[in-house]
Automatic annotation (TrEMBL):
Subcellular location: Endoplasmic reticulum membrane; Microsome membrane
Protein name (database record): Cytochrome P450
Ion transport recorded as keyword: no
Names of required cofactors: heme
Family statement: Belongs to the cytochrome P450 family.
Length: 596
């Protein structure tokens, strides 16, 4: 039996960006195009299907060449729940269609060898359903996955030298990938990506949630379209309400972390190579306490019992991240057979889903109880999860996947950020000294306000995140035909946005490989009205909604640590694995030396 038969026999419905694209286009079906005629004397060649993403002018906001005309899209009917101001819509989607110099996609530079393979592929006399299956298994998705989950930055640098700032990779078995190696191109793409950008990145987790668990939505990280927007609006609002209130929890967890360091460091003041785990415990304690208004005890000074709930969460988050990497990197065999990576993903996602589902039920009960006893349901009295459940537009299932995304993706990103912040401060002792001087001026009882009044602290956070980004590569799938850098790029093309590469460019940051927090002190570094400090949190409407929370977590922890200890590190350089969810590539054997 060959692979294709097996695929069909298993009745596997593959989730691909095309599927996601269809979901997104369904939403846009309501949108009609109203063509505005070009001026009589126009010499333009009209390309009606290629909205402009022209980025030839660096530093300007203009996406409109002087010889073009508008073809605005007008909302005809939009269901009330998704209603968006039409002016806003028109602004975000109005595109230019006339480019007499636009170039066909085929002319975009890229490696010829896979282009040849792509051409050869056309000679295989396969029935269309087989062809489609193969494309889904090893088409552009695969290249895309490979580049997202492989340590790709050195490869991207070589590509710039060889092909220039824009590279096209032909999926050898169908589909296309474009890599935007210039920040300006990425910014312009993001500005014009419309209301419902499409991110395509963790097919395995999506398949687990949609097909294995049969949830309606796959969680905010993986969902697109109006469902995502609805979820996102609610969470953004709630996070604003809760972040301030939760400072105390983060402060307490950070104090517990200090005690844990005192407990685990050896006689030379050094922590063990498993210190990454300890940071993970701290970030999970923060996030779980904030979401559920319950202290979990991840940071018990004597350590956690391996069969306890915190231990199971800690272990499962780590295993899920590893399993995602195993599934997403390389050919997606798990779509046909149950590979060990897929089995592990299911096993550990099951653990997390069961635990957090239990808390969803508990929160529902508690809300019922509070309602019956006419308690005030204010931010002070109910947990983040309870607030979510009160929102009619969010189902309890959506609340669950939202918690899971925040726990799995959020806590992993924060752990990585803390690891590198400590590393940079340990390596750049002058910066650590300067930060300590600033910390000494704060009162013994730290407040959130203190953090915002510490410019050097803020600069250190930005600089560390610039050098090592927890999510170093963003990706999108084009929802419609577009002009990128004057090339006509068809819809469904996968676009990779390597933000880590941009933030290491001399062009934007002098002495770009050095940790120099001072660069953020005096200039508000911006490009086309976009704050470069936010780059590590992504861009556009799908950027991270937890930036303020993450910065508060990092700031609080580092202030507490530096008040008590001087941090040192005497081993080899720690690099980032630069994968989709990056991690430090060496043990974090820091020394925490008592201050006098
Ligand atoms: C230093 C810490 C963090 C960094 C650097 C970071 C970075 C990012 C980046 C780069 C993205 C993708 C943006 C894009 O595609 O344009 C993202 C999305 C996301 N992050 Fe974070 N993140 C951090 C912390 C957190 C935390 C603490 C949470 C949750 C509590 C969180 C939850 C999410 C979610 C749910 C998304 C998907 C948003 C959407 O698609 O609407 N992140 N993050």
């Amino acid at each position: 039996m060959n692979i294709i038969n097996l695929l069909h026999l298993k009745g596997i419905k593959l989730i691909t960006p095309r599927f996601r694209f269809q979901k997104a286009t369904l939403i846009n079906v309501n949108v009609n195009t109203n063509t505005v005629k070009p001026p009589e004397d126009s010499q333009n060649v009209v390309e009606p299907n290629f909205p402009s993403i022209n980025t030839s002018t660096f530093g300007t906001n203009s996406m409109q060449p002087s010889n073009a005309y508008f073809q605005p899209k007008i909302i005809e009917e939009v269901s009330s729940e998704n209603k968006i101001e039409s002016s806003e819509y028109i602004e975000s989607t109005s595109k230019l269609y006339a480019f007499k110099d636009s170039l066909p996609f085929d002319l975009m530079p890229g490696p010829q060898s896979i282009k040849m393979l792509a051409k050869l592929w056309n000679f295989f006399p396969l029935a269309s359903r087989y062809e489609e299956s193969i494309q889904k298994l090893v088409g552009a998705d695969n290249i895309f996955g490979y580049l997202s989950w492989y340590n790709s930055l050195p490869l991207f640098k070589r590509m710039i030298n060889e092909y220039g700032p824009l590279v096209r990779l032909h999926g050898p078995f169908g589909g296309n990938v474009v890599i935007l190696l210039r920040l300006e191109d990425a910014m312009t793409l993001i500005k014009s990506e419309g209301l419902f950008p499409i991110r395509s990145c963790i097919d395995s987790l999506e398949q687990y949630r949609l097909q294995y668990r049969k949830y309606k939505q796959a969680g905010p990280f993986l969902t697109c379209g109006p469902e995502w927007k609805k979820m996102r609006n609610v969470v953004e609002g709630l996070l604003c309400d809760y972040v301030d209130n939760q400072f105390k929890v983060i402060d307490e967890a950070s104090n517990e972390f200090i005690n844990r360091i005192l407990h685990i460091r050896n006689k030379q003041d050094e922590v063990l190579s498993s210190f990454y785990n300890e940071i993970n415990k701290w970030s999970l304690e923060c996030i779980c306490s904030i979401l559920l208004n319950k202290r979990f005890g991840f940071l018990e000074s004597a350590g956690i019992n391996f069969s306890s709930e915190p231990a199971r969460i800690l272990d499962s988050v780590k295993e899920v991240v590893t399993a995602i990497h195993r599934c997403e990197f390389g050919i997606h065999f798990w779509k046909i057979v149950e590979t060990p990576g897929w089995k592990n993903l299911v096993k550990y996602c099951d653990v997390l889903d069961t635990i957090f589902n239990k808390y969803v039920h508990k929160a529902q009960d508690s809300l019922r109880h509070k309602k019956n006893s006419n308690d005030n349901l204010t931010v002070q009295n109910i947990s983040f999860l309870e607030s979510l459940l009160l929102k009619e537009e969010i189902s309890s299932e959506d609340s669950l996947t939202l918690l899971l995304d925040m726990v799995i993706i959020g806590s992993t990103a924060v752990t990585h950020a803390v690891a590198f912040l400590l590393y940079h401060l340990a390596r750049y002792t002058n910066a650590q000294r300067k930060l300590y001087e600033e910390i000494k001026k704060t009162s013994a009882k730290l407040t959130r306000q203190d953090l915002s009044n510490m410019p050097y602290l803020q600069a250190c956070l930005k600089e560390s995140l610039r050098l090592k980004q927890p999510i170093p590569i963003l990706n999108r799938v084009l929802p419609e035909n577009s002009l990128i850098h004057n090339y006509q790029v068809p819809k469904n093309t996968h676009v990779l946005i390597p933000t880590q590469l941009y933030s290491l460019k001399e062009e934007y940051f002098e002495d770009s490989l050095k940790f120099k927090p001072d660069r953020w002190l005096y200039d508000d570094l911006e490009l086309s009205n976009f704050k470069l400090s936010a780059l590590s949190f992504g861009c556009g409407s799908k950027s991270c909604f937890a930036q303020a929370l993450a910065e508060m977590q990092l700031g609080t922890l580092v202030v507490q640590i530096l008040r008590k200890f001087r941090v040192a590190y005497q081993y080899g350089e720690i690099n980032s694995t630069n994968q989709m969810l990056a991690a430090p590539d060496r043990p974090l054997r820091f020394s925490f030396i008592d201050r006098d």
